[in-house]
What does this fold into?
Amino acid sequence: MSNATARVLASGARLPPMPTIRDLVKLYKLQAIKHMSQNFLMDERLTDKIVKSAGRIDAKDTVLEVGPGPGGITRSILRREPGRLVLVEKDARFMPTLELLKECARPLHTEVDIFQGDILRFDIEKHVPISEHRLHLIGNLPFAISTRLLINWLKDLSLRRGAFRRPDTAMTLTFQKEVAVRICAPLGDDQRCRLSIMSQIWTQPFLKFVIPGKAFVPKPDVDVGVVKIVPLKQPKTDLPFELVERVLRHIFNMRQKYCRRGYSTLFPPEEREEITDILFELADVDPTVRPFELSVDECLRLATVYAGYKDKHPEVADYDYRARKKPIDDCLV
Ligand code: SAM
It folds into this structure.
């Protein structure tokens, strides 16, 4: 078998023959752009493995792929023949290769829609109407926006909006390995942080596997973790997302100290110690454990008693302990 034939066969069972991703990148001179966080996956076994991590995908499903780039993962998704595939890519240089892929996918039973734009501004409700189709969000995410995108999606999930109007939308996403580990970090793990708790309040995240940096072109300085994130049928709270985020931000701001230390900075210094003592008692949480030793439930109890206090003292919502007072000398000038 010639190399060319082998490559054509490698490019997908039911997709017609296409140049390999590596050849396409060369042909269209698609050098990676650093500020777009472009690191391409050329190895079909890896792109197939990412898509396999998403679980069952068939004609009843819609897939939204973030940042398809030259289309490696896109081909692996097409081989599963979802009912619809929505591609959102910021870099206009990839439009011709994605159009080519769409053309090649004509014999399949998949409707392919390509959008050029920023996923952070993409209106999912407008472009993916709620239907009987289940939605999968899949992407080898650009590092530069991966955490922000996850936080945005967790917020959407908490409000049952955007991609999460249906309760069974699942995400299969890549993150820098350290971030992937943090998202999934269990109780007591020293990698546990605000992102772990935020993720685990609304979802169950699974670190599926790690891809070594050398598998990407160009090679990033870090390895990459593939995380499947499944929304919980019953989220662990119905407190407002921002309130929970604010409380956790304070607790984890001083991660090496007792957890009461960071929590206390939610309140002005004059009353800080007293309120913190009362609220820890009300929440039935040991104030001397470190933030990473707090369970999700304990964090939520601390958020709940803060919410109760804030209802009675609304001014506390605006308190910002980092806002520095103007030094007296400045005022004298
Ligand atoms: N999926 C391809 C692969 O695995 O080889 C490319 C992955 S690369 C890590 C990230 C992709 O996301 C690039 O194609 C990049 O242009 C695109 N991208 C970067 N920022 C984006 C944004 N804000 N919205 C949508 N796509 C973006």
